[in-house]
């Protein structure tokens, strides 16, 4: 016996993710990373498990860097770790098994050793928003295990490519 359940109320779009107005002209382009919600990423109801969204954000950021010729492993080999120190995520709609979506990401700001990224997970046509997020990374000297006072020039030069 099947009973129709009412759709849960949708949340209004968030405007919580702000960018630095000085960088707006150089960070308008989003990198797009297509995804598919596979069965192993869902619960018994076929809804994507919340932790999968974090994985997709990370994958999109790494692939964005790779698209510019920046291998994350090379940054690590330079002695620089970029761990997440802050994460804000807002779920707007659930993705379900078999659905396709696009993770859009861009570096919104580079402040000293803090690297801010913003994200949107949207339908392929861009009409539905599933998740919005922001992530802040910080540069850490891998050898000393301490936060850099300033990013190494090679790392900074690589990241500046995102602003062009």
UniProtKB/TrEMBL annotation:
Ribonucleoprotein listed as a keyword: no
Gene3D superfamilies: Hotdog Thioesterase
InterPro entries found in the cross-reference section: 4-hydroxybenzoyl-CoA_TE (IPR050563), HotDog_dom_sf (IPR029069)
Molecular-function GO term, any one: fatty acyl-CoA hydrolase activity
Record flagged with keyword Hydrolase: yes
This protein's UniProt keywords: Hydrolase
Coiled-coil parts of chain: none
PANTHER family per UniProt: 4-HYDROXYBENZOYL-COA THIOESTERASE FAMILY MEMBER, ACYL-COA THIOESTER HYDROLASE YBGC
Protein name per Swiss-Prot or TrEMBL: Acyl-CoA thioesterase
Taxonomic lineage: Bacteria, Bacillati, Cyanobacteriota, Cyanophyceae, Oscillatoriophycideae
